[in-house]
């Protein structure tokens, strides 16, 4: 028989206690994950994540508190007033929404974090004590206000740590999964410590029931497991939705980045072709001049009345050859200026090099530069985009020619070399200039870094990006005579798609 003045002795179901801690950790992980989605989105999507995230987090925090309370056993019948239970759930959702709004701000200073954690901590404490107010039992609940104050302090401290961690993880740093899980463990234990401190603050003295039991319901152990299972499903769905949305965002970002790279590559091509204007005009003008000369010769032969058919045939054949040559030059120029996605095919890299030397021949002649080729025979084919690889070679050759414009003490020579290199093909472009400034070597592949007065600083950066997208590598060789750039391309059998 229970004495009327003696406090009721309670005990805990350790399995349900462990279950409440698991839910606290799961809710903490979901909070860290959802904070990133709220921050990363805008407009209606952000509002959707805010509402859905706060509901999932609120349910998680609320379920932890209720399962922790249901784990507490007293030697008297215990029921819960369901309207009060719903009120505590609403408080949990509002606290979660407030937390997500706080961490989604652009900045979170110490003052703002302290104010936010105080409000959130008091809200979580309110959830706990409103949940306890829902208890309906033949006993009077008395509180040790020192422990109540301690539980509120713990709630505020936990809220501060939660806001700071959520703010840190909202940008989803790379390889953050394990650190996020560790943080969730800390947060989950902190939530549990606050809850069980609040429970320890309560003492139950037997008394006649004085509260309204009209809306009271009892919850069995099976009901407790049902609450836990439903809560874990809600939290799991929230985390899964966040993962899927993050994956779509990542793919969209990669697509936008690819499009930007194509735009920059197109701009760089136009800039490069601008530098080659004189050479292009010369390459087109030469065959056209030959066409005109041979055409005039053919007309004179026909007008003579007794044409030399063999000479006439040779003149017409030369007209066809020169027309084909001019058409080929125009086609290469058009390809370089066109925008579009890369078109990978099997290529003879030596042919690509020879086509580039034709385009830059006049530019080299004007600057007094001799271009020498040292191309290895029987090189395996590479899988690549002809136009992109031409763009890389043109950029390296023009850079070499310009580096030698002021050279007066030795011949201006540019060597383009190809060779077999393990499972790749090696291409080298070396000039006889002064070489690279050692202080600038580390920066020459940076976007917008240039040593040319009129340069845009994108040629080498885009060239490296093109080579790496082909599965190769572009770099400089320090200590060489003149500037030496070289890149590798995997052979067809080892190419990346």
Give a written overview of the molecule:
With 497 residues, this protein is α+β, with helices and mostly antiparallel strands. It has 3 domains: 11-254, no CATH class; 276-339, Helix Hairpins (Orthogonal Bundle), CATH 1.10.287; 344-497, Histidine kinase-like ATPase, C-terminal domain (Heat Shock Protein 90), CATH 3.30.565. 62% of the residues lie in helices and 13% in strands. The protein contains 12 helices and 14 strands. The strands form 5 sheets. A 5-stranded mixed β-sheet has the order 9-11-12-14-13. Strand 11 and strand 12 form a beta hairpin. Helix 4 crosses helix 5. The longest helix has 55 residues, at 221-275. The chain is elongated and about 135 Å long. It starts with 10 loop residues before the first strand and ends in a 7-residue tail after the last strand. The model has no long low-confidence stretch (mean pLDDT 79).
């Amino acid at each position: 028989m229970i004495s009327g003045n003696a406090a009721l002795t309670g005990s805990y179901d350790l399995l349900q206690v462990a279950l409440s801690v698991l839910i606290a950790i799961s809710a903490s992980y979901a909070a860290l994950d959802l904070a990133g989605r709220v921050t990363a989105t805008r407009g209606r999507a952000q509002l959707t994540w805010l509402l859905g995230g706060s509901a999932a987090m609120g349910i998680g925090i609320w379920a932890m508190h209720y399962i922790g309370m249901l784990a507490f056993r007293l030697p008297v019948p215990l029921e819960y007033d369901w309207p009060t239970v719903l009120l505590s759930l609403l408080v949990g959702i509002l606290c979660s929404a407030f937390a997500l709004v706080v961490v989604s701000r652009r900045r979170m200073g110490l003052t703002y974090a302290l104010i936010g954690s105080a409000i959130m901590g008091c809200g979580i404490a309110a959830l706990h004590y409103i949940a306890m107010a829902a208890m309906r039992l033949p006993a009077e609940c008395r509180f040790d206000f020192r422990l109540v104050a301690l539980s509120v302090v713990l709630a505020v401290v936990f809220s501060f740590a939660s806001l700071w961690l959520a703010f840190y993880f909202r940008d989803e740093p790379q390889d953050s999964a394990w650190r996020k899980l560790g943080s969730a463990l800390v947060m989950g234990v902190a939530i549990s410590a606050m809850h069980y401190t609040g429970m320890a603050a309560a003492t139950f003295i037997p008394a006649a029931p004085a509260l309204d039991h009209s809306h009271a319901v009892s919850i069995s152990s099976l009901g407790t497991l049902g609450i836990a299972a439903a809560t874990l499903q809600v939290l799991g769905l929230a985390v899964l939705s966040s993962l899927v949305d993050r994956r779509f965002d990542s793919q969209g970002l990669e697509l936008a980045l690819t499009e930007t790279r194509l735009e920059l590559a197109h701009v760089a091509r136009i800039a490069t072709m601008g530098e080659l204007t004189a050479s292009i005009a010369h390459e087109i003008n030469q065959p056209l001049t030959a066409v005109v000369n041979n055409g005039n010769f053919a007309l004179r032969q026909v007008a003579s009345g007794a044409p030399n058919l063999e000479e006439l045939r040779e003149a017409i054949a030369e007209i066809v050859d020169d027309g084909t040559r001019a058409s080929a030059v125009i086609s290469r120029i058009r390809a370089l200026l066109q925008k579009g996605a890369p078109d990978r095919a099997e290529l003879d890299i030596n042919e690509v090099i020879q086509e580039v030397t034709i385009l830059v021949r006049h530019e080299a002649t004007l600057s007094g530069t001799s271009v020498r080729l040292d191309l290895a025979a029987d090189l395996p084919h590479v899988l690549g985009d002809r136009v992109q690889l031409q763009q890389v070679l043109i950029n390296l050759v023009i850079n070499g020619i310009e580096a030698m414009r002021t050279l007066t003490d030795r011949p201006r020579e540019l060597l383009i070399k190809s060779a077999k290199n393990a499972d790749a093909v090696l291409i080298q472009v070396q000039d006889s200039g002064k070489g690279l400034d050692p202080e600038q070597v580390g920066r020459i592949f940076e976007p917008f870094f240039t040593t040319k007065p009129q340069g845009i600083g994108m040629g080498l950066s885009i060239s490296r990006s093109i080579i790496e997208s082909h599965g190769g590598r572009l770099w400089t060789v320090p200590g060489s005579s003149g500037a030496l750039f070289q890149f590798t391309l995997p052979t067809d059998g080892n190419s990346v798609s």
